[in-house]
Amino acid sequence: MLGQFADGGRLEMKGELEYLLSASDKLGQYVDRWIAVVGDEIVAHGETAKEVFTKAKQKYPSKIPFVMKVPSDVVMVM
Amino acid sequence: MSLSSAREIVCKYLSYRFTERDGSTRYIQLPLVHVILESRVDKIGTDALVDSGSTTTFVPKEIADAISLVPSGSTEVVRAEAAGAGGRFPTDVVHLKRLTLIKNVTPFAQCVEILVHVPREEGRIPYTILGRDHVFPKFDITFHEKRRKFTFTRIGD
User: Fold this and answer.
1) ipTM surpassing 0.95, yes or no?
2) Which DSSP string corresponds to A15-65?
């Protein structure tokens, strides 16, 4: 995982969502697709959550993959 | 890993832009938080929208299926229906073993043995939705729309 300096100068470890926040320029190419992130790497992308989750678990069996569908700007109202 | 006891947790909006097929540029800004969802058999990290407009918590069927978070008998499932401005859709209410909120790599809140709604159709919701039933009672949540941040302020006992 990457480190980052937080307020006060202490070093914080970055999680997968924080990695995506800092690498947001990469997300546009995955809009409406599922991605799996482990540490600071997008380890799988594909059409289904199950597919990318399985690939990530195979590659990093001891980790908990972060899986998300990269949202488009479709307005969502519940 | 033990929970952070920090009183305030500040999270950034997920912001990015992309180009549509017609060449137009779209900007996305969403108050998403990292959560770990745990079923009886597996765990998955995913993004969750903090949504004060939702009375309950939803998990996309795609994510629920990935960790086998499925109805497993009459005691585990209640068929329900969700309704909103987008219309009505059927859901199953299932037990989630644990919901953990994460900032960086540190958990800061947990909800254990909770009921969540899972739409019966894929594609109904694009991400997990944290409604007002489980997480909101633990925090005052403030959205700083212009600064693209949101803050969880822990409520004292």
Assistant:
1) no
2) -HHHHHHHTGGGGGGGTTSEEEEETTEEEEEES-HHHHHHHHHHH-TTS--
